[in-house]
Amino acid sequence: MEHEVRVRFAPSPTGLLHVGSFRTALFNWLFARKNNGKFILRIEDTDQKRSTKEFLESQLEDMKWMGLDWDEGPETVGCHSPYFQMQRLETYKKYADKLMSMDKVYLCYCTPDELKQAREETKSAGYSGKCRNLTPQQVEKLKDEGRKPCIRFISPPRGETVFCDQIKGEVSFENNLLDDFVIMKSNGVPTYNFAAVVDDHLMEITHVIRGDEHLSNTPRQVLLYQAMEFEPPRFVHIPIILNEDRTKLSKRKGAVHLLEFEQKGFLKEAMLNFMSLLGWAPKDDREILSKNELIESFSLDGITKHPAVFDYKKLEWINGQYITSLPTKTIVERLKPFIEEAGADPGEKDFTWYVEAISVYGNRVKTLVELADSLLCFFRDIDEYDPKGVKKHFKHDYIISALYELEKRTSEDEEFSVESLEKIIRDYSEELGVSAGKLIQPVRLAITGTTASPPIFDVMKLAGKELLVDRLHKAAKFVESWKADS
Ligand code: GLU
Asked: Are 402 and 434 in contact, with CB atoms under 8 Å apart?
Protein backbone atom coordinates (compact mmCIF):
# COMPACT_ATOMS: atom_id res chain seq x y z
CA MET A 1 0.00 0.00 0.00
CA GLU A 2 1.20 3.52 -0.83
CA HIS A 3 2.02 5.58 2.23
CA GLU A 4 -0.32 8.36 3.20
CA VAL A 5 0.85 11.61 1.65
CA ARG A 6 2.23 13.93 4.34
CA VAL A 7 3.58 17.32 3.39
CA ARG A 8 4.53 20.42 5.28
CA PHE A 9 4.87 24.14 4.85
CA ALA A 10 7.68 25.47 7.01
CA PRO A 11 7.76 29.28 6.99
CA SER A 12 10.09 31.38 9.10
CA PRO A 13 8.24 34.25 10.78
CA THR A 14 10.88 36.76 9.78
CA GLY A 15 8.74 38.86 7.45
CA LEU A 16 5.32 39.12 5.87
CA LEU A 17 4.26 36.10 3.83
CA HIS A 18 5.96 36.42 0.45
CA VAL A 19 3.98 35.32 -2.61
CA GLY A 20 6.76 32.83 -3.36
CA SER A 21 6.34 31.20 0.06
CA PHE A 22 2.62 31.31 -0.33
CA ARG A 23 2.91 29.47 -3.64
CA THR A 24 4.98 26.79 -1.85
CA ALA A 25 2.27 26.51 0.82
CA LEU A 26 -0.40 26.29 -1.86
CA PHE A 27 1.30 23.50 -3.85
CA ASN A 28 1.78 21.50 -0.65
CA TRP A 29 -1.80 22.06 0.41
CA LEU A 30 -3.23 21.15 -3.01
CA PHE A 31 -1.10 18.03 -3.12
CA ALA A 32 -2.26 16.98 0.35
CA ARG A 33 -5.91 17.64 -0.38
CA LYS A 34 -5.75 15.92 -3.75
CA ASN A 35 -4.32 12.78 -2.16
CA ASN A 36 -6.40 12.85 1.03
CA GLY A 37 -3.13 13.34 2.84
CA LYS A 38 -2.02 15.60 5.64
CA PHE A 39 -0.80 19.18 5.42
CA ILE A 40 1.40 20.21 8.33
CA LEU A 41 2.32 23.73 9.30
CA ARG A 42 5.68 24.06 10.98
CA ILE A 43 6.96 27.42 12.12
CA GLU A 44 10.72 27.58 11.73
CA ASP A 45 11.36 30.23 14.33
CA THR A 46 14.94 29.37 15.20
CA ASP A 47 16.24 32.67 13.90
CA GLN A 48 15.38 34.37 17.15
CA LYS A 49 16.73 37.75 16.13
CA ARG A 50 14.52 38.08 13.09
CA SER A 51 11.42 36.12 14.09
CA THR A 52 8.58 38.18 15.54
CA LYS A 53 5.12 37.52 16.90
CA GLU A 54 3.67 40.12 14.52
CA PHE A 55 5.11 38.42 11.45
CA LEU A 56 3.89 35.07 12.69
CA GLU A 57 0.37 36.36 13.24
CA SER A 58 0.31 38.07 9.89
CA GLN A 59 1.45 34.88 8.13
CA LEU A 60 -1.18 32.82 9.93
CA GLU A 61 -3.83 35.41 8.98
CA ASP A 62 -2.77 35.07 5.35
CA MET A 63 -3.03 31.30 5.52
CA LYS A 64 -6.50 31.61 6.98
CA TRP A 65 -7.51 34.26 4.46
CA MET A 66 -6.65 31.85 1.67
CA GLY A 67 -8.30 28.92 3.41
CA LEU A 68 -5.11 26.85 3.61
CA ASP A 69 -6.04 24.87 6.70
CA TRP A 70 -3.52 22.60 8.36
CA ASP A 71 -4.19 19.22 9.85
CA GLU A 72 -1.89 18.56 12.74
CA GLY A 73 -0.14 20.27 15.56
CA PRO A 74 0.85 19.76 19.16
CA GLU A 75 -2.37 21.24 20.53
CA THR A 76 -5.68 20.20 19.19
CA VAL A 77 -8.09 22.11 21.37
CA GLY A 78 -10.45 23.90 18.99
CA CYS A 79 -8.08 24.04 16.06
CA HIS A 80 -4.54 22.80 15.68
CA SER A 81 -1.75 25.07 16.62
CA PRO A 82 1.17 24.76 14.23
CA TYR A 83 4.42 23.15 15.33
CA PHE A 84 7.03 25.61 16.56
CA GLN A 85 10.65 24.58 16.33
CA MET A 86 11.61 26.62 19.38
CA GLN A 87 9.31 24.39 21.41
CA ARG A 88 11.16 21.32 20.21
CA LEU A 89 14.72 22.06 21.33
CA GLU A 90 14.82 18.95 23.51
CA THR A 91 14.07 16.80 20.50
CA TYR A 92 16.91 18.26 18.42
CA LYS A 93 19.26 17.85 21.35
CA LYS A 94 18.38 14.19 21.56
CA TYR A 95 19.29 13.65 17.90
CA ALA A 96 22.45 15.73 18.18
CA ASP A 97 23.49 13.53 21.13
CA LYS A 98 22.75 10.48 19.04
CA LEU A 99 24.98 11.74 16.24
CA MET A 100 27.65 12.50 18.81
CA SER A 101 27.54 8.97 20.15
CA MET A 102 27.88 7.73 16.57
CA ASP A 103 30.94 9.98 16.02
CA LYS A 104 29.25 11.74 13.14
CA VAL A 105 29.57 15.19 14.65
CA TYR A 106 32.05 17.04 16.86
CA LEU A 107 32.24 20.06 19.10
CA CYS A 108 33.77 23.16 17.63
CA TYR A 109 35.09 25.91 19.88
CA CYS A 110 36.07 28.46 17.25
CA THR A 111 34.86 31.99 17.90
CA PRO A 112 33.16 34.08 15.19
CA ASP A 113 36.31 36.20 14.95
CA GLU A 114 38.52 33.17 14.41
CA LEU A 115 36.17 31.86 11.78
CA LYS A 116 36.18 35.19 10.01
CA GLN A 117 39.93 35.35 10.08
CA ALA A 118 40.27 31.80 8.76
CA ARG A 119 37.83 32.60 5.94
CA GLU A 120 39.90 35.61 4.97
CA GLU A 121 43.15 33.69 5.10
CA THR A 122 41.95 30.72 3.08
CA LYS A 123 39.63 32.82 0.89
CA SER A 124 37.01 30.15 1.32
CA ALA A 125 33.65 30.26 3.07
CA GLY A 126 33.95 26.66 4.24
CA TYR A 127 35.11 25.50 7.65
CA SER A 128 38.62 24.03 7.82
CA GLY A 129 37.83 21.23 10.27
CA LYS A 130 40.22 22.77 12.79
CA CYS A 131 38.40 21.43 15.89
CA ARG A 132 37.81 17.95 14.46
CA ASN A 133 40.73 16.33 16.22
CA LEU A 134 41.24 18.29 19.40
CA THR A 135 43.05 16.50 22.21
CA PRO A 136 41.34 16.32 25.65
CA GLN A 137 43.94 18.81 26.91
CA GLN A 138 43.14 21.28 24.16
CA VAL A 139 39.46 20.93 24.91
CA GLU A 140 40.05 21.59 28.60
CA LYS A 141 41.97 24.71 27.79
CA LEU A 142 39.28 26.02 25.45
CA LYS A 143 36.63 25.32 28.06
CA ASP A 144 38.65 27.15 30.67
CA GLU A 145 38.61 30.16 28.39
CA GLY A 146 34.84 30.07 28.80
CA ARG A 147 34.14 29.10 25.20
CA LYS A 148 30.83 27.45 24.41
CA PRO A 149 31.02 24.96 21.57
CA CYS A 150 28.69 24.49 18.63
CA ILE A 151 28.23 21.10 17.00
CA ARG A 152 29.54 20.45 13.51
CA PHE A 153 28.73 17.61 11.15
CA ILE A 154 31.61 15.61 9.68
CA SER A 155 31.11 15.94 5.95
CA PRO A 156 32.64 13.33 3.67
CA PRO A 157 35.78 14.80 2.08
CA ARG A 158 35.36 13.10 -1.29
CA GLY A 159 32.73 11.71 -3.58
CA GLU A 160 29.33 13.10 -4.42
CA THR A 161 26.00 13.33 -2.74
CA VAL A 162 23.31 12.32 -5.15
CA PHE A 163 19.57 12.55 -4.78
CA CYS A 164 16.56 12.44 -6.97
CA ASP A 165 14.39 15.48 -7.36
CA GLN A 166 10.96 14.88 -8.75
CA ILE A 167 11.14 17.93 -11.02
CA LYS A 168 14.83 18.07 -11.86
CA GLY A 169 15.68 14.40 -11.96
CA GLU A 170 19.01 13.26 -10.56
CA VAL A 171 20.97 16.01 -8.84
CA SER A 172 24.50 15.61 -7.56
CA PHE A 173 26.81 17.80 -5.50
CA GLU A 174 30.54 17.38 -4.98
CA ASN A 175 31.15 16.58 -1.33
CA ASN A 176 34.34 18.61 -1.21
CA LEU A 177 32.15 21.68 -1.60
CA LEU A 178 30.27 20.84 1.59
CA ASP A 179 32.24 21.80 4.66
CA ASP A 180 31.69 20.61 8.23
CA PHE A 181 28.49 22.57 8.69
CA VAL A 182 26.99 23.52 12.05
CA ILE A 183 23.97 21.54 13.18
CA MET A 184 23.58 23.10 16.65
CA LYS A 185 24.64 26.54 17.67
CA SER A 186 26.42 27.06 20.98
CA ASN A 187 23.15 28.25 22.56
CA GLY A 188 21.50 24.89 21.88
CA VAL A 189 19.41 26.13 18.96
CA PRO A 190 19.57 23.90 15.87
CA THR A 191 20.40 25.23 12.43
CA TYR A 192 17.82 25.09 9.66
CA ASN A 193 19.19 22.00 7.89
CA PHE A 194 19.37 19.91 11.03
CA ALA A 195 16.02 20.92 12.51
CA ALA A 196 14.30 20.45 9.16
CA VAL A 197 15.68 16.92 8.76
CA VAL A 198 14.79 15.85 12.30
CA ASP A 199 11.30 17.29 11.94
CA ASP A 200 10.67 15.98 8.45
CA HIS A 201 11.61 12.55 9.75
CA LEU A 202 9.57 12.69 12.96
CA MET A 203 6.59 14.23 11.20
CA GLU A 204 6.82 11.45 8.63
CA ILE A 205 6.93 13.85 5.72
CA THR A 206 6.68 11.94 2.46
CA HIS A 207 7.29 14.82 0.02
CA VAL A 208 9.34 17.93 0.66
CA ILE A 209 7.85 20.44 -1.77
CA ARG A 210 9.69 23.75 -1.58
CA GLY A 211 11.26 26.56 -3.58
CA ASP A 212 14.21 26.07 -5.86
CA GLU A 213 16.38 28.21 -3.62
CA HIS A 214 16.59 25.27 -1.20
CA LEU A 215 18.08 22.87 -3.73
CA SER A 216 21.58 23.74 -2.52
CA ASN A 217 20.59 22.84 1.07
CA THR A 218 19.41 19.42 0.03
CA PRO A 219 22.82 17.64 -0.18
CA ARG A 220 23.54 18.60 3.44
CA GLN A 221 20.12 17.34 4.42
CA VAL A 222 20.68 14.12 2.50
CA LEU A 223 23.95 13.60 4.40
CA LEU A 224 22.08 14.09 7.66
CA TYR A 225 19.44 11.56 6.65
CA GLN A 226 22.17 9.08 5.87
CA ALA A 227 24.03 9.77 9.11
CA MET A 228 20.93 9.32 11.24
CA GLU A 229 19.84 6.31 9.21
CA PHE A 230 16.54 7.91 8.29
CA GLU A 231 14.81 7.29 5.02
CA PRO A 232 14.77 10.58 3.09
CA PRO A 233 11.50 11.95 1.74
CA ARG A 234 10.97 12.70 -1.93
CA PHE A 235 12.27 16.10 -2.91
CA VAL A 236 10.23 18.37 -5.15
CA HIS A 237 11.91 21.71 -5.84
CA ILE A 238 9.52 24.05 -7.56
CA PRO A 239 10.64 26.70 -10.05
CA ILE A 240 11.51 30.22 -9.02
CA ILE A 241 9.06 33.07 -9.70
CA LEU A 242 10.40 35.93 -11.81
CA ASN A 243 9.15 39.35 -12.82
CA GLU A 244 8.09 39.80 -16.41
CA ASP A 245 11.51 41.27 -17.20
CA ARG A 246 13.00 38.00 -15.89
CA THR A 247 14.51 39.58 -12.81
CA LYS A 248 13.94 38.16 -9.37
CA LEU A 249 10.56 39.04 -7.90
CA SER A 250 11.39 41.91 -5.63
CA LYS A 251 9.71 44.58 -3.61
CA ARG A 252 11.06 47.32 -5.81
CA LYS A 253 9.04 46.08 -8.75
CA GLY A 254 5.69 45.99 -6.93
CA ALA A 255 3.74 44.01 -4.39
CA VAL A 256 5.39 40.79 -3.19
CA HIS A 257 3.53 40.06 0.02
CA LEU A 258 0.20 38.33 0.05
CA LEU A 259 -1.20 40.95 2.39
CA GLU A 260 -0.51 43.69 -0.14
CA PHE A 261 -2.64 41.90 -2.70
CA GLU A 262 -5.49 41.68 -0.22
CA GLN A 263 -5.11 45.37 0.48
CA LYS A 264 -5.15 46.14 -3.22
CA GLY A 265 -8.53 44.47 -3.52
CA PHE A 266 -7.64 41.12 -5.02
CA LEU A 267 -10.06 38.34 -4.17
CA LYS A 268 -8.77 35.24 -2.45
CA GLU A 269 -10.34 33.03 -5.12
CA ALA A 270 -8.45 34.92 -7.82
CA MET A 271 -5.18 34.86 -5.88
CA LEU A 272 -5.49 31.15 -5.28
CA ASN A 273 -6.29 30.53 -8.93
CA PHE A 274 -3.51 32.77 -10.23
CA MET A 275 -0.85 31.57 -7.79
CA SER A 276 -1.53 27.94 -8.56
CA LEU A 277 -0.73 28.64 -12.21
CA LEU A 278 2.73 29.96 -11.32
CA GLY A 279 4.82 26.98 -12.28
CA TRP A 280 1.99 24.51 -12.63
CA ALA A 281 -0.71 23.97 -15.25
CA PRO A 282 -3.63 21.57 -15.49
CA LYS A 283 -3.48 19.11 -18.35
CA ASP A 284 -6.22 20.88 -20.30
CA ASP A 285 -4.80 24.42 -20.06
CA ARG A 286 -7.83 25.85 -18.26
CA GLU A 287 -7.09 29.22 -16.71
CA ILE A 288 -10.06 29.74 -14.43
CA LEU A 289 -10.22 27.06 -11.79
CA SER A 290 -12.08 27.04 -8.50
CA LYS A 291 -10.45 25.71 -5.36
CA ASN A 292 -12.13 22.35 -5.83
CA GLU A 293 -11.12 22.17 -9.47
CA LEU A 294 -7.56 22.99 -8.49
CA ILE A 295 -7.51 20.20 -5.94
CA GLU A 296 -8.95 17.79 -8.46
CA SER A 297 -6.48 18.65 -11.23
CA PHE A 298 -3.35 19.15 -9.15
CA SER A 299 -0.47 16.78 -9.68
CA LEU A 300 3.28 17.05 -9.32
CA ASP A 301 3.89 16.16 -12.94
CA GLY A 302 2.08 19.36 -13.95
CA ILE A 303 4.86 21.41 -12.33
CA THR A 304 7.11 23.05 -14.89
CA LYS A 305 10.88 22.98 -14.95
CA HIS A 306 11.32 26.51 -16.21
CA PRO A 307 10.85 29.62 -14.03
CA ALA A 308 7.36 30.97 -13.54
CA VAL A 309 6.62 34.55 -14.57
CA PHE A 310 4.48 36.75 -12.37
CA ASP A 311 2.17 38.30 -14.94
CA TYR A 312 0.35 41.11 -13.15
CA LYS A 313 -2.01 41.71 -16.07
CA LYS A 314 -3.09 38.11 -15.95
CA LEU A 315 -3.76 38.38 -12.22
CA GLU A 316 -5.90 41.45 -12.88
CA TRP A 317 -7.77 39.65 -15.61
CA ILE A 318 -8.43 36.64 -13.37
CA ASN A 319 -9.56 38.94 -10.56
CA GLY A 320 -11.94 40.69 -12.95
CA GLN A 321 -13.38 37.31 -13.90
CA TYR A 322 -14.09 36.53 -10.25
CA ILE A 323 -15.61 39.96 -9.56
CA THR A 324 -18.28 39.20 -12.13
CA SER A 325 -18.69 35.51 -11.43
CA LEU A 326 -18.76 35.25 -7.64
CA PRO A 327 -22.14 35.63 -5.94
CA THR A 328 -23.00 39.33 -5.73
CA LYS A 329 -23.61 38.98 -2.02
CA THR A 330 -19.99 37.92 -1.55
CA ILE A 331 -18.69 40.83 -3.58
CA VAL A 332 -20.87 43.28 -1.68
CA GLU A 333 -19.61 42.03 1.67
CA ARG A 334 -16.01 42.23 0.56
CA LEU A 335 -16.45 45.58 -1.16
CA LYS A 336 -17.81 47.42 1.87
CA PRO A 337 -14.53 47.68 3.78
CA PHE A 338 -12.95 49.22 0.69
CA ILE A 339 -15.71 51.82 0.47
CA GLU A 340 -15.07 52.62 4.08
CA GLU A 341 -11.34 52.73 3.50
CA ALA A 342 -11.96 55.26 0.73
CA GLY A 343 -13.66 57.48 3.28
CA ALA A 344 -17.38 56.80 2.74
CA ASP A 345 -20.07 55.06 4.73
CA PRO A 346 -20.98 51.80 3.00
CA GLY A 347 -24.18 51.64 5.08
CA GLU A 348 -25.64 54.56 3.14
CA LYS A 349 -26.77 52.24 0.36
CA ASP A 350 -28.93 49.18 0.55
CA PHE A 351 -28.24 45.74 -0.88
CA THR A 352 -30.35 46.28 -4.01
CA TRP A 353 -28.30 49.35 -4.81
CA TYR A 354 -25.06 47.36 -4.53
CA VAL A 355 -26.44 44.64 -6.77
CA GLU A 356 -27.20 47.25 -9.40
CA ALA A 357 -23.84 48.96 -8.91
CA ILE A 358 -21.95 45.72 -9.40
CA SER A 359 -23.92 44.82 -12.48
CA VAL A 360 -23.16 48.25 -13.96
CA TYR A 361 -19.51 48.58 -12.88
CA GLY A 362 -18.36 45.01 -12.19
CA ASN A 363 -17.05 44.21 -15.64
CA ARG A 364 -15.09 47.45 -15.92
CA VAL A 365 -12.85 47.03 -12.90
CA LYS A 366 -9.96 44.73 -12.01
CA THR A 367 -9.94 45.02 -8.23
CA LEU A 368 -12.21 45.90 -5.33
CA VAL A 369 -10.19 49.05 -4.80
CA GLU A 370 -11.01 50.14 -8.35
CA LEU A 371 -14.64 49.21 -7.82
CA ALA A 372 -14.83 51.22 -4.59
CA ASP A 373 -13.12 54.17 -6.27
CA SER A 374 -15.55 54.13 -9.17
CA LEU A 375 -18.52 54.06 -6.81
CA LEU A 376 -17.25 56.75 -4.50
CA CYS A 377 -19.00 59.50 -6.47
CA PHE A 378 -22.34 58.01 -5.37
CA PHE A 379 -21.40 58.33 -1.72
CA ARG A 380 -19.86 61.73 -1.43
CA ASP A 381 -19.40 64.93 -3.39
CA ILE A 382 -16.97 64.83 -6.23
CA ASP A 383 -13.80 66.77 -5.60
CA GLU A 384 -13.50 68.32 -9.03
CA TYR A 385 -14.57 67.99 -12.63
CA ASP A 386 -11.97 66.64 -15.00
CA PRO A 387 -10.43 69.88 -16.37
CA LYS A 388 -10.11 68.61 -19.95
CA GLY A 389 -13.70 67.39 -19.80
CA VAL A 390 -14.85 70.79 -18.57
CA LYS A 391 -13.21 72.57 -21.51
CA LYS A 392 -14.62 70.15 -24.00
CA HIS A 393 -18.10 69.36 -22.73
CA PHE A 394 -19.18 72.37 -20.69
CA LYS A 395 -18.21 74.97 -23.25
CA HIS A 396 -21.38 75.15 -25.36
CA ASP A 397 -23.80 78.04 -24.87
CA TYR A 398 -26.77 75.80 -24.20
CA ILE A 399 -25.08 73.84 -21.39
CA ILE A 400 -26.20 75.93 -18.44
CA SER A 401 -29.84 75.99 -19.43
CA ALA A 402 -29.67 72.35 -20.51
CA LEU A 403 -28.38 71.26 -17.12
CA TYR A 404 -31.14 73.21 -15.37
CA GLU A 405 -33.73 71.78 -17.70
CA LEU A 406 -32.48 68.23 -17.15
CA GLU A 407 -32.52 68.89 -13.41
CA LYS A 408 -36.19 69.84 -13.72
CA ARG A 409 -37.18 66.98 -16.01
CA THR A 410 -35.43 64.27 -14.03
CA SER A 411 -36.82 65.57 -10.75
CA GLU A 412 -40.30 65.26 -12.23
CA ASP A 413 -39.70 61.78 -13.65
CA GLU A 414 -42.07 59.54 -11.69
CA GLU A 415 -40.86 56.33 -13.26
CA PHE A 416 -37.12 57.01 -12.81
CA SER A 417 -35.96 53.98 -14.74
CA VAL A 418 -33.08 53.47 -17.15
CA GLU A 419 -35.61 53.70 -19.99
CA SER A 420 -37.38 56.82 -18.74
CA LEU A 421 -34.05 58.57 -18.16
CA GLU A 422 -32.87 57.66 -21.62
CA LYS A 423 -36.10 59.06 -23.04
CA ILE A 424 -35.58 62.35 -21.19
CA ILE A 425 -32.10 62.78 -22.64
CA ARG A 426 -33.04 61.73 -26.16
CA ASP A 427 -36.21 63.82 -26.33
CA TYR A 428 -34.45 66.86 -24.99
CA SER A 429 -31.48 66.55 -27.31
CA GLU A 430 -33.93 66.41 -30.19
CA GLU A 431 -35.67 69.51 -28.96
CA LEU A 432 -32.33 71.28 -28.76
CA GLY A 433 -31.30 69.99 -32.17
CA VAL A 434 -28.06 68.46 -30.85
CA SER A 435 -26.93 64.85 -30.81
CA ALA A 436 -27.64 62.87 -27.63
CA GLY A 437 -23.88 62.61 -27.04
CA LYS A 438 -23.71 66.38 -26.64
CA LEU A 439 -25.88 66.02 -23.54
CA ILE A 440 -24.58 62.68 -22.35
CA GLN A 441 -20.99 63.81 -21.81
CA PRO A 442 -21.91 66.89 -19.76
CA VAL A 443 -24.28 64.78 -17.67
CA ARG A 444 -21.52 62.19 -17.14
CA LEU A 445 -19.15 64.92 -16.04
CA ALA A 446 -21.83 66.34 -13.75
CA ILE A 447 -22.45 63.03 -11.99
CA THR A 448 -19.02 61.41 -11.88
CA GLY A 449 -16.64 64.31 -12.43
CA THR A 450 -15.01 62.24 -15.19
CA THR A 451 -15.46 61.68 -18.91
CA ALA A 452 -15.59 57.88 -18.76
CA SER A 453 -18.18 55.72 -17.05
CA PRO A 454 -20.49 52.83 -17.78
CA PRO A 455 -23.57 53.60 -19.95
CA ILE A 456 -24.88 56.92 -18.73
CA PHE A 457 -28.52 55.94 -18.25
CA ASP A 458 -27.43 53.17 -15.88
CA VAL A 459 -25.25 55.65 -14.04
CA MET A 460 -28.10 58.17 -13.76
CA LYS A 461 -30.39 55.51 -12.39
CA LEU A 462 -27.74 54.34 -9.95
CA ALA A 463 -27.22 57.89 -8.69
CA GLY A 464 -30.86 57.97 -7.60
CA LYS A 465 -33.16 60.92 -8.11
CA GLU A 466 -31.99 63.08 -5.24
CA LEU A 467 -28.30 62.81 -6.02
CA LEU A 468 -28.80 63.13 -9.77
CA VAL A 469 -30.87 66.28 -9.44
CA ASP A 470 -28.37 67.72 -7.02
CA ARG A 471 -25.39 66.94 -9.29
CA LEU A 472 -27.09 68.51 -12.32
CA HIS A 473 -27.83 71.60 -10.29
CA LYS A 474 -24.31 71.87 -8.94
CA ALA A 475 -22.84 71.38 -12.39
CA ALA A 476 -25.04 74.16 -13.78
CA LYS A 477 -23.85 76.47 -11.01
CA PHE A 478 -20.25 75.45 -11.65
CA VAL A 479 -20.54 76.20 -15.37
CA GLU A 480 -22.08 79.57 -14.58
CA SER A 481 -19.17 80.64 -12.47
CA TRP A 482 -16.60 79.03 -14.78
CA LYS A 483 -18.01 80.97 -17.73
CA ALA A 484 -18.16 84.17 -15.70
CA ASP A 485 -14.47 83.76 -14.82
CA SER A 486 -13.24 82.99 -18.31
N1 GLU B 1 12.08 27.83 6.80
C2 GLU B 1 12.46 27.56 5.45
C3 GLU B 1 12.00 28.72 4.59
O4 GLU B 1 11.18 29.51 5.05
C5 GLU B 1 11.83 26.27 5.00
C6 GLU B 1 12.54 25.57 3.93
C7 GLU B 1 12.02 24.18 3.69
O8 GLU B 1 10.86 24.06 3.27
O9 GLU B 1 12.75 23.23 3.94
O10 GLU B 1 12.43 28.90 3.49
From this structure: no
